[in-house]
Design a protein that fits this description.
The structure holds two protein chains of two kinds. By secondary structure, chain A is of the alpha/beta class. Chain A is 32% helix and 24% strand. Chain A has an eight-stranded mixed β-sheet, with helices on both faces. In chain A, helix 4 crosses helix 6 (150-163). The two termini of chain A are 29 Å apart. Chain B is of the alpha/beta class. Chain B has a single domain (5-262, 272-318), classed as 3-Layer(aba) Sandwich (Rossmann fold), CATH 3.40.50. In chain B, the strands form two sheets. Chain B has an eight-stranded mixed β-sheet with strand order 6-7-8-3-9-10-12-11, with helices on both faces. The relative contact order of chain B is 0.14. The chains are: A alpha/beta, B alpha/beta. At the A-B interface, helix 6, helix 7, helix 8, helix 9 and helix 10 of A face helix 6, helix 7 and helix 9 of B.
């Protein structure tokens, strides 16, 4: 088991005298096996970035537990943990210092995480990592970040992470800023490191198509809560939670046009009450939904949903 | 009948000290009464520059380097400033990309509406109460709460500000509306509401024609009647949206279509085809066809000569594969 998270909660205090509490993560649980890819999907404000920051050890959870390879996350020393868990972030343009040649960060990464590697082998390691993402050292070394497209920079970010030889790759919206025609090159690199290296991946995205494409399993977050969790195939062929259903119906498909009208709801930012976080937008909401928080139940095999419709 | 808004061999270049960037390089298109023309392109394709040039908002270092834009048959670049201003907001309006970040932070949304009314009061009869009522009704249609009119833009989220700019630009029912990436900051559920709102405006004839500029072909598909695909400053394929989506002709359009990932897709079943290579430097584009370095069907002629626009089954396509096949 790579990750096991249970009851993961992160509360941010804000406002006057820090009396306003925002539950960015609220009782989230999931498991990731070795070699598995988990897609974490949600809209803005869903808590997906907070979850990623917790998993990166950038912020501690307020309560709940994450275990990484059987040990509580907090017991891992940062450097020891990051040697095994590397991240690729959303904005490739801000991941690189514009004043230095781009290969500098590749060598810095080796110095930090693999200091035992002899000088002579570093050049080889860098060119191997670049090859794994479909680039050659000749085209990269000595050049500056502005000389690359977003797609190339993102592949170099992945190469940097691969240099560490991590067990796990955390990917945060890695293709959301990249054009469609260049996106494919990044996705195909992820395909290769998944198939050839058997890398475990957590793939954070707002894009249901990508979540479906990349993930073995999917975790759907809404206002910090895990509303649905299960095998990708099961979730995309038979979404159970009304929120997941609404999201999927709203994704534009290139081959078909929307036929039905949608009713406008004014979505105001509200602090979650005691009930279901989706109750104020849900077409099936009852009084119970507004007052009692639904428990997570296994509605289909390995497919969990937190909704009163199912129990 | 000619379109409400017509571009004829339009060229808009950025003249900088170092280079001339040919962002829009010979674009012809028409936005007809009753139609929504989607301009689909990636970053650097020139689509935003095209939007600005179509709206008559060209400012240095951007200059019109050739061709014309006609609004209802009149050349907008031959108009005086006064005449051009008089058609803004009621005739020809644009929602520029990132307009939401340019809202005056010291004014409430209500004040912005008052400004719009004030600047057009001389040229057309406006019932102020009517406009506020319309603003409130329309705010609800795009999922904005009523109180949004009494807020300052800094108090609103990015998604709300983006919808406010759409609300403001449609308030006086412009005949032609140009929208540049109008849903880029929106979550999918709200995006669908906004698309529906724009469709309603078309159905009510509140707006007669739209140019919808986007990188997202699937979103474009939801609203477009016509589609133009832009690559490296030129329209490489245009025609009825159904045809361009259903049977794309240009290798670039085909590549874009094959790069689409929708829910239900799985990496385990198929690796994506997509496109290889990178888009060209617009200060120094390839001589012949601008797409040839990335094209899997390229022929010797593609490198030497720019392809002419051929018409095949209702689609106009700029590609040597189809030249002479009309």
């Amino acid at each position: 088991m790579i990750y096991r998270a249970e009851g993961l909660t992160k509360v941010f205090s804000t406002g006057f005298l820090r009396t306003v509490k925002i539950r960015a993560l609220d009782d989230v649980g999931f498991e990731v096996e070795e070699g598995e890819v988990l897609s974490i999907v949600g809209e803005s404000g869903s808590g997906k970035s907070t979850l990623l920051r917790v998993l990166l050890k950038a912020i501690p959870p307020t309560s709940g537990e994450v275990e990484y390879r059987g040990r509580p996350l907090r017991s891992w020393k940062p450097l020891e943990y990051w040697r095994e868990v590397q991240a690729v972030l959303q904005d490739p343009y801000s991941s690189f210092n514009p004043f230095y040649p781009i290969d500098r960060i590749l060598y810095k990464t080796l110095e930090k995480y693999r200091p035992e590697l002899p000088e002579a082998e570093r050049v080889k390691a860098v060119s191997e990592a670049l090859e794994a993402v479909g680039l050659s050292a000749r085209d990269v070394v000595g050049k500056y970040p502005h000389q690359f497209s977003g797609g190339q920079l993102q592949r170099i970010s992945i190469a940097r992470a691969l240099l560490v030889r991590p067990k796990v790759l955390l990917a945060d919206e890695v293709v959301s800023m990249i054009d469609a025609s260049l996106r494919v090159s990044v996705l195909n690199v992820l395909h290769d490191i998944r198939e050839k290296m058997g890398m475990t991946m957590l793939f954070v995205t707002h894009d249901m198509g990508l979540a479906s494409y990349i993930g073995d399993k999917v975790l759907v977050l809404y206002k910090g809560q895990a509303v649905e969790y299960g095998p990708a195939e099961s979730i995309f062929s038979k979404p159970l939670h009304p929120y997941t259903q609404m999201l999927l119906a709203s994704v534009p498909r290139v081959k078909e046009r929307w036929r039905e009208r949608v009713t406008s709801v004014t979505i105001e930012f509200s602090l979650a009450g005691s009930g279901c976080p989706f109750a104020d937008r849900c077409p099936y909401a009852t009084e119970a939904c507004r007052t009692i928080r639904p428990k997570r139940i296994e509605a289909e095999k390995n497919h969990y949903v937190a909704c009163h419709l199912y129990g | 009948m000619p379109g409400l808004l017509v571009a004829d061999s339009l060229k808009a270049y950025y003249f900088t000290k170092r280079a001339v960037v040919r962002a829009v390089d010979g674009v012809s298109l028409e936005a007809e009464d009753g139609s929504v023309l989607a301009v689909v392109g990636e970053s650097g394709s020139g689509k935003s520059t095209l939007g600005v040039a179509l709206a008559g908002l060209v400012k240095p270092p951007l200059r019109i380097a050739g061709g014309s834009v006609y609004f209802k048959g009149r050349d907008i670049y031959a108009m005086g400033d006064e005449e051009l201003r008089s058609i803004r907001a009621v005739g020809l309006a644009i929602v520029p990309q990132f307009a939401m970040d340019a809202l005056n932070p010291t004014a409430r949304v209500r004040d912005l509406i008052r400004d719009i009314i004030a600047s057009h009061r001389d040229s057309l009869p406006i019932d102020e109460e009517d406009v506020y009522r319309r603003a409130q009704e329309r705010a609800l249609q795009i999922g904005l709460p009523k109180w949004v009119l009494d807020r300052y833009s800094v108090e609103l989220s990015g998604g709300m500000r983006q919808r406010v700019t759409i609300l403001l630009s449609t308030l006086l029912n412009p005949e032609v509306l140009i929208l540049d990436e109008p849903t880029s900051a929106l979550d999918v559920v709200v995006q669908r509401l906004v698309i529906q709102y724009l469709q309603d405006l078309m159905a009510e004839r509140a707006v007669k024609s739209m140019v919808f500029i986007t990188h997202d072909i699937a979103t474009a598909r939801q609203i477009a009647t016509e589609m133009a695909v832009m690559y490296a400053g030129q329209i490489v394929e245009r025609g009825p949206a159904e045809s361009v989506i259903g049977s794309p002709l240009h290798p670039y359009t085909k590549g874009l279509m094959s790069a689409i990932v929708e829910p239900g897709a799985s990496i385990k079943r198929a690796k994506l085809e997509g496109l290889s290579g990178e888009p060209p430097d617009m200060a120094n584009p390839p001589k012949g066809c601008r797409f040839y370095p990335r094209c899997r069907y390229r022929m010797p002629i593609c490198e030497r000569e720019e392809p002419p626009e051929a018409e095949v089954g209702g689609i106009k396509v700029k590609c040597w594969l189809y030249a002479g096949k009309t």
